[in-house]
Amino acid sequence: MIVVEDTTGPNGPHPVLAVTGLAREARLAAGPGVATVGAGGNPERLRDVLKGRSGPGCRAVMSIGIAGGLDPDLVPGDVVVATGVSAGGVRHPAHSQVVAALARRLTDAPVRVVLADVAGVEAAVLSPHAKASLRAATGAAAVDMESHVAAAFAEAHGLPFCAVRVVCDPADRALPAAIAKALKPDGEPDILAVLAALARRSASVGGLVRLARDSSAAFASLGRCRALLGVGLGVPDLGELLRDVA
Q1: What distance in Å separates the CA atoms of residue 158 and residue 137, rounded to the nearest whole number?
Q2: Is the dihedral of CA 167, 163, 43, 194 positive or negative?
């Protein structure tokens, strides 16, 4: 579990809550006006962490990090600013004003930025066939395991929801199952689990090399986007449109 609080943002006492899966994502998201929370790629654990907060303690909720590609036109490093998130037959819309503000912030990003829905899932989507099926069912451009949890939390507390997700493994690339699970609860990679997967031959060296290359492109892009988003992750102060979150 990763929880880093910052309540000193310029938009009042409440920060933007950045919801992540990986520790590296949380470190990139952190900064003035931002509180980060993550649960190591485990949606149920993330729900428990969010439920355990004494109150929402934030003015907006952003899901931010890397994602699997569903749109076959997207490549590692491409950015999806979510217009909504679909999960279990339910679609949670992102706040349209926030989406527009984020898109403006990312206009100068040296990568492709698209506005599209993302899909939220309880377990990693591993194969190209499974990705294609999810794309057909939802129309989403990317998939992750945090956005639907973040959206539900925001909705429950009457807060704006948004998401910025960077494609890591593209739609035509399989993700090794053993590697997808090789995370510690704090979101750090479990190196011993990776080595064990190699020893069992449930993951190949070639697959790891491709994943490392894709991850490098995704995190480099995420870092550039984070710099452009700036204080409070670029989420505008919506003033009277928000409920009291004290």
Answers
A1: 27
A2: positive
Provide the CA 37 distance to its chain's centre, in angstroms: 11
Per-residue pLDDT tens for 62-90?
999 999 999 999 999 999 999 999 999 99
Q: What is the pTM of this model?
A: 0.85
* Both tokens assigned to 123: 């377990």
DSSP secondary-structure letter at 132? H
Sequence-distant (6+) residues with CB within 8 A of 222 are 25, 28, 64, 65, 66, 166
Tokens of 65: 């990090």
Cα–Cα distance between 93 and 84 in angstroms, integer? 4
Helices (H), ranges, the chain: 23-29, 43-51, 96-105, 128-138, 147-156, 177-180, 191-200, 205-229
* pLDDT tens string 143-160: 999 999 999 999 999 999
Q: Using an 8 Å Cβ cutoff, are 227 and 30 in contact?
A: no
Distance CA 44, CA 91 (A): 19
| Helix or strand run (H / E) with residue 64 | strand 60-69
Cα R_g (the chain), whole angstroms: 17
Q: Are 20 and 147 in contact (CB under 8 A)?
A: no
Tens digit of each residue's pLDDT (9 = 90 or more) over 165-203: 999 999 999 877 656 665 567 666 645 555 555 556 655
